[in-house]
Amino acid sequence: DAEITQSPRHKITETGRQVTLACHQTWNHNNMFWYRQDLGHGLRLIHYSYGVQDTNKGEVSDGYSVSRSNTEDLPLTLESAASSQTSVYFCASSESGASYEQYFGPGTRLTVT
Amino acid sequence: QQQVKQSPQSLIVQKGGISIINCAYENTAFDYFPWYQQFPGKGPALLIAIRPDVSEKKEGRFTISFNKSAKQFSLHIMDSQPGDSATYFCAADRTLNAGNNRKLIWGLGTSLAVNP
After folding, report:
1. Please, which residues bridge with residue B8 across strands?
2. Which of A10, A78, A107, B1 gives a 20 to 30 Å CA spacing to B54?
3. Cβ(A25)–Cβ(A103) below 8 Å
4. Residues paired with residue A51 on neighbouring β-strands, in sequence order
5. Contact A42 B101 (CB under 8 A)
6. pLDDT-derived band at B73, boundaries 50, 70, 90
7. Which of B36, B104, B105, B111 to mutate: most A Cβ within 10 Å?
8. Statement: residue A97 has pLDDT above 90
9. Is B113 in a helix, a strand, or coil?
10. Quick check: B42 contacting A, CB < 8 Å?
């Protein structure tokens, strides 16, 4: 069965370190998204991609970067982790033209100390 | 700027009761209005979606009501069960350009607790 996976599921890191969260999908979807979820803020879009070599900034992109070298993967990098980036991160994917139906991964809980 | 406003923030319902969650939007260029359900420790999952040319859509105990003139839509959960306890998100889907690129605008979520 097709799926979307995230790793690691839990991560504790120190302020200032670079951190990369992995996202891998086997749906063969062109669209991929990264969100962060914080209490009171719902789901906030960090970065998104509509295909290989395409990346776009979302509403809370400062301090984060992504690259898309193939269809299956969209890693999220925190260049220099800050305590404000402590959150639960979700990756999602969708077919082109039907992005209202997004398939979410299980999430990564990141703690920055 | 929140383009989709969701209420209430939290909701407690007795088993067998009706849960109602409301959303209002500000942009008329939305094409789909999906609802997502998220259980603790899991990612959100699509529950039900409606197009703006339809006033109501029902799937089992879940119904979306859509009022285009008022720019409002709501989720009704009939005969609410403890297993429905979750966070519910409304969203609006719009096209960014002339192509197929689309993006979801999310409400802030409603935490539903159904008491046994």
Report:
1. none
2. B1
3. yes
4. A54
5. no
6. very high
7. B104
8. no
9. strand
10. yes
Please tell me the distance from the alpha carbon of residue A41 to that of residue B107, in angstroms, as a whole number.
9
Split at pLDDT 50, 70, 90, the class of A29 is very high
> Which residues touch B86 (CB under 8 Å, ≥6 apart)?
B37, B38, B39, B40, B112
Is the pLDDT at A40 greater than 90? The verdict is no
Cβ contacts of A103 on chain B, cutoff 8 Å = 45
A96 interaction partners in chain B (CB closer than 8 Å): 100-101
The torsion angles phi and psi of B44, rounded to 5 degrees, stand at -60, 155
A92–B43: do the CB atoms touch at under 8 Å?
Answer: yes
- C-alpha separations of A101 from A47, B11, B50 in Å: 17, 25, 11
Percent of all residues in chain A with a pLDDT value above 90, rounded to a whole number: 90
Please say whether the dihedral angle defined by the alpha carbons of residues A85, B103, A95 and B43, taken in this order, is positive or negative: positive
Identify residue B114 by its one-letter amino acid code: V
